[in-house]
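SAMPLE LOG
Freezer: B-3
Tube label: C17
Construct: single chain, 156 aa
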Amino acid sequence: MGSSLILDNNFDNLNLPSLRIGIIQAEWNSQITDLLMMSCRNYFLEVGIDDKNIITRKVPGSMELVYASNHMLINHDVDGIVTLGCIIKGETDHDKHIANAVSNGLVSVSLSHNKPISFGVLTTNNHNQAISRAGGNKGDKGKESAYTLLKMLDLV
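STRUCTURE (predicted):
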């Protein structure tokens, strides 16, 4: 049984309606990333972020999340970004190389801009595991990633 994040929705230091949030979605495994995007965006709206302040972009795959995050931080004056992707294990170790490059790249972009980037990229062994983590019985990584970004913005 996996653990899940407890969402307390307590963001004392944030003016939620004025926050500018970026969400970048990888199109690879779109059946999964569409679910992540829907729950991420819905969570931001539920807690009071103004719809006009949510900037969304799509990129072909998870690797492109790194460049797109850097581009968004430079050109769209966002307070933070949620990145959403889904890397499913195949017959080779390609998934591990992509996951490592994406996670390291996003850390680098976040630190170079001094703004938080939430890692909503699933790394699973199969499609069923991904579904379980995109709103199924193992949690909702889209919503959890949105919450994580807000907690990090509240911290700073």
